[in-house]
Design goal:
The chain is α+β, with helices and mostly antiparallel strands. It contains ten helices and 22 strands. The strands form six sheets. Strands 4, 8, 9, 10, 11, 12, 13, 18 and 21 form a nine-stranded mixed sheet that branches. Belongs to the class-II aminoacyl-tRNA synthetase family.
Length: 466
């Protein structure tokens, strides 16, 4: 490990470090040398990175890289680049500007996180559309496949809550890779290959990490893994089985359902409105948390998920009831943990059975500590840990190749859509995460493989010359 809170270069060691390098480090790092242990303890990791001359953040979510930070960042990029190059993945570099026509074809142009310059362009937040358009032009035969490419460059997202320094920025550095294959079986081989590359990258850093089953989110696909550093400072909740070792994000992992288990004694209730104005009433055990994404994944109704104020939802529905002459549709959803003997809270609106739809025994709540593990049929128990997400791998299938009409000619001359995967590592986020996990009362520590320098030379007393 490399401790960086003290770093002074004497003129006696110009042969080790260039004059320019020594001067730049001295110039940008000098404020950090005055920090005491008590100062360091009180500073956030972002403040520590700033004080020690790694970065400057003129505004929330915007980072300027100073010599020490840039050197560390380049070392991280070098580690990732070597692992990918050694595996035969081809490096490319796409523009930071992306045209709306591609995003409209994949139905992702309507997106609050995109920085749109006008009606035609945005700053790239990710590159599924552009890389698919590029490969479509060059890899037109099965002989060109499999094809795996990557880039390391800046990405942009209009993050509404830019906080946590490098962990959540409006501009950030990302390694994004993509695979193109002839069919699902071959695509899953590429998916496995990239997960093995990620395993090698994170093992090289020698920081406890975890691969967890995850929700694919807006990227899409039906198979994805998140890669996390295990840390009490993490924002993500992960669950791990103490028997089989299966791990997953709280949004993805499900408890083992024991059909013979006793139903919950009491239920709680949460209201939502559909996009059409119907009222949806969720009933679930009082000791559990509603997971609205699980319900939405069932595609039973379309919720207005941005409207969550319970009092206002009831008032809006009552106004609609009055305007419609008394009765409007009510949809009742019961979690699998609720039963006949469960005590339910009183409904705040009128519900006529003729206008009521009921869904029973649905899995709509988060897993909780000590739940039984479904992967080993309830033999193990699930236990929570906190993590910081630093990477994500996705099997995409044909999610992007179909809307972008990206095809290749197979052995028989028939045109087929690419089967795809995408793989991301937040490079700048990785640096911030490592700093967060390894910092101590003396300052920052880095794994030797990415440390800006392996030796700290500290001048003590006067330098005697001649």
């Amino acid at each position: 490990m490399f401790s960086s809170n003290l770093f002074v270069v004497s003129n006696s060691f110009k042969s080790l470090i260039s004059r320019t390098s020594a001067r730049s480090i001295s110039l940008f790092s000098s404020p950090g040398f005055k920090l005491s242990k008590s100062d360091i303890k009180q500073l956030t990791t972002t403040q520590l990175l700033v004080k020690l001359g790694y970065i400057r953040q003129p505004h929330a979510g915007i980072t300027q890289w100073l010599p020490l930070g840039l050197k560390t960042l380049r070392n991280i990029e070098g580690l990732i680049r070597k692992k990918l190059d050694d595996a035969g993945v081809i490096e490319v570099s796409l523009s930071s500007l992306s045209h709306s026509v591609l995003w409209q074809k994949t139905n992702r142009w309507v997106n609050d996180e995109l920085y749109k310059l006008n009606e035609d362009y945005c700053l790239a937040a990710t590159a599924e559309e552009d890389i698919t358009a590029l490969v479509k032009e060059y890899a037109q035969s099965y002989k060109n496949l499999p094809l795996q490419v990557y880039q390391i460059n800046r990405k942009y997202r209009d993050e509404k809550r830019a906080r946590g320094g490098l962990l959540r920025g409006r501009e950030f550095i990302m390694k994004d890779a993509y695979s193109f294959d002839v069919n699902k079986d071959e695509a899953l081989k590429s998916f496995k290959k990239f997960n093995e590359i990620y395993l090698s990258i994170f093992k090289s850093l020698r920081i406890p990490f975890l691969k967890a089953n995850a929700d694919a989110g807006s990227i899409g696909g039906d198979l994805s893994y998140e890669w996390h550093f295990l840390s009490d400072k993490g924002e993500d909740t992960l669950f791990i089985c103490d028997n089989c070792g299966t791990a997953g994000n709280v949004e993805k992992v499900r408890p083992y359902v024991d059909l013979n288990a006793q139903s919950a004694a009491k239920a709680q209730m949460t209201y939502f409105l559909t996009t059409g104005g119907s009222l949806v009433v969720f009933y679930y055990p009082s000791d559990r948390k509603l997971n609205i994404k699980l319900f939405e994944s069932l595609n039973l109704v379309h919720l207005n998920s941005k409207f969550r104020d319970q009092k206002k939802i009831v008032e809006a529905f009552q106004q609609k009831q009055q305007a419609s002459g008394g009765w409007t549709n009510v949809i009742m959803v019961y979690d699998v943990g609720c039963g006949q003997n469960t005590i339910y809270p009183k409904l705040a609106v009128r519900a006529d059975p003729k206008f009521t739809t009921v869904f029973k025994s649905l899995d709509i709540t988060d897993v909780k500590e000590d739940d039984l593990c479904p992967a080993c049929n309830g033999k193990g128990h699930l236990h929570s840990k906190k993590g910081i997400e630093v990477g994500h791998t996705f099997y995409l299938g044909k999610k992007y190749s179909v809307p972008l009409d990206a095809k290749f000619s197979d052995k028989n001359g028939k045109m087929r859509y690419y089967d795809m995967g995408c793989y991301g590592i937040g490079v700048s986020r990785l640096l911030g995460s490592i700093a967060e996990v390894l910092r101590d009362d003396k300052g920052l520590k880095w794994p030797a493989i990415i440390a800006p320098f392996h030796v700290s030379i500290i001048q003590v007393g006067k330098v005697v010359t001649g």
